[in-house]
């Protein structure tokens, strides 16, 4: 018997808080020697980002000196007195002027401190893309400029904090498999095997990351899909149960009511009003 296709679930951002803006202003690619010694007694009017890809520089801030070696990024907030200079007669960097360091703070990037990055090739590519867009000015280049700057900050944040907290990249494939196969009855042991983790480690990390067991997570995906079907289609309860891999419509209805508080038919009626 052919299964009717299940409904994919919608994915949305949670409105926990307003995201701070980060607006690009300008970018300058600098190749400096020892004669390069700018001073800003009143600081920069906007936030500044030094992206050093070769050689070495040094910036003096009220909090102390910060070394700007190859493979580092430093963000300086506005209105902070500073001076900077080339060291050893070779300093190559991009200076990005942008308005509002709120995004950097939101991503917990350090301000006025050195960030060592292994993502410099990607950052250089984004900087060159910024410059190219500003030269030829294709359609939407203003939007693109803001997005390129945000991509740089996201690269830094993901690299810096990717291994912290409850984010486990080794579970990505398992989560994708679950979301793309909501209508199937997946064997958790096979998912665990594909992750390369032991069963104990998989279950522990999965719960830490999602707050649920793998079985409950998969069930919640099926119930979310069922709700979308009840709200947006004329599929019968039996067809929905069949599409989502439940044993039968009675098993589905009992499970749905246990977790939603109402039967599928009552849920459908309420969703229409």
TrEMBL record:
InterPro entries: AraC-bd, AraC_XylS_family_regulators, Homeodomain-like_sf, HTH-like, HTH_AraC, HTH_AraC-typ_CS, Tscrpt_reg_AraC-type_HTH. Pfam families: AraC_binding (PF02311), HTH_18 (PF12833). Gene3D superfamilies: Homeodomain-like, Regulatory protein AraC. PANTHER family: HTH-TYPE TRANSCRIPTIONAL ACTIVATOR RHAS-RELATED (PTHR46796). GO terms for molecular function: DNA-binding transcription factor activity; sequence-specific DNA binding. It comes from the Bacteria. Residues 172-270 form the HTH araC/xylS-type domain. Keywords: Activator, DNA-binding, Transcription, Transcription regulation. The keyword S-adenosyl-L-methionine does not apply. This is AraC family transcriptional regulator.
